[in-house]
Write a structure and sequence with these properties.
With about 350 residues, this protein is an alpha/beta fold. Helices cover about 50% and strands about 10% of the residues. It is built from 14 helices and five strands.
């Protein structure tokens, strides 16, 4: 399910967002961005917000390609399309365009992806914006994703936004913008992208995954909740099985089946990034359950508390590279207790 460790947003077997030229199901967001860019009324920073895997990074690179090709003018296509064969597109795909800087988590000296986006990464933008602008005069920094900045990094970014360079644009990608500093949010123009409609997601999966059985594509559409990126991740390796296992664990009642849980733990340990993905699927399954109960008029304070506990368990386990067994056992125990108490 995972790709290059330096690019956690790359799905194995699929193009990276900088290599993706089709923006699926986000016509309203694209139109709003296009109006601002083509009219020359850009903010100093955009905040592209919405759930993971719905096209935020794809839109960010589309905006960057247009600006670096045509500038903030109406000289290019109304939909901001720049062809893959264009020299700007080729440079961006090769991560070699002098006008584009991508800020993200990097590997540490042990070859592991850092748990956050640190201040050193943000400070790279200082030297970048200090360089002489190339053709078109624009310099663009994409922060992917801004939620991963630690406190020092966020403060460093805020300082830059307070005194923005000329012809400079930040594009911040955020899955949870409410967690960002309010002072950063106030200095950006927010553009919310929505989860894909079911019919759009289903059609896309049929076109992109024709080899997968229709029932499995239907399961992908249901479990991914409008996120094409998540659906594609689920389709790789044993992702769909892990997601179904997460739903099964969520229905744990009474006494735990320790044998089944240990077998699950062993299988997760053998899968690349298995614990991280299983944790994501379990948290998402919990979210679906909480939303469903809310529609039934159930307050669910205990369920929300459980969600926070499970999320924290897996974040700690993946951050410290812990062995899966104890994390899954602890999660199963908490879920079983919540079910016995009627909290789920």
């Amino acid at each position: 399910m995972s790709g290059d460790p330096e690019e956690p947003d790359r799905v194995e077997g699929q193009p990276h967002p900088r290599e993706t030229y089709e923006l699926i199901g986000q016509d309203a967001g694209l139109a709003r961005a296009a109006r601002a860019i083509r009219s020359g009324t850009l903010p100093q920073a955009w905040l592209l917000a919405g759930p993971p895997g719905i096209g935020k990074a794809t839109l960010a690179y589309r905006m960057a390609r247009y600006l670096l090709r045509y500038g903030a003018t109406a000289a290019g296509p109304p939909d901001l399309f720049v062809a893959p064969a264009d020299p700007v597109s080729r440079q961006i795909e090769a991560q070699a365009h002098p006008g584009l800087l991508v800020l993200r988590r990097r590997e540490n000296d042990k070859g592991k992806l850092r748990k956050d986006l640190d201040v050193g990464e943000i400070r790279r933008s200082g030297a970048f914006f200090g360089l002489t602008a190339g053709a078109g005069g624009w310099r663009i920094a994409i922060v992917d994703c801004a939620d991963e900045m630690n406190g020092n990094a966020a403060n460093a970014l805020l300082k830059i936004l307070e005194e923005p360079p000329a012809r400079a644009l930040f594009i911040l990608i955020s899955h949870a913008p409410g967690q960002m500093l309010s002072t950063i949010r106030s200095r950006t123009r927010r553009l919310d992208l929505k989860p894909l409609k079911e019919e759009v997601l289903t059609e896309s999966l049929q076109r992109m995954l024709p080899e997968i059985a229709a029932k499995d594509r239907a399961a992908l559409a249901r479990l991914s909740e409008g996120s094409l990126g998540l659906a594609m991740r689920l389709s790789g390796e044993d992702g769909l099985k892990l997601a179904r296992d997460a739903e099964t664990l969520l229905h744990t009642n009474g006494e735990l089946d320790f044998s089944a849980i240990l077998k699950l733990s062993d299988r997760i340990a053998r899968s690349t990034d298995g614990l991280m993905h299983f944790g994501e699927f379990l948290v998402q399954a919990l979210s679906r359950r909480i939303r469903g109960r809310a529609l039934e008029g159930y307050a669910g304070e205990r369920a929300v508390e459980l969600w926070e506990q499970i999320n924290a368990l897996f974040m700690r386990a993946t951050g410290l590279n812990l062995e899966p067994r104890q994390t899954i056992l602890a999660s199963a125990g908490k879920i079983a207790a919540a079910n016995r108490q009627g909290a789920l």
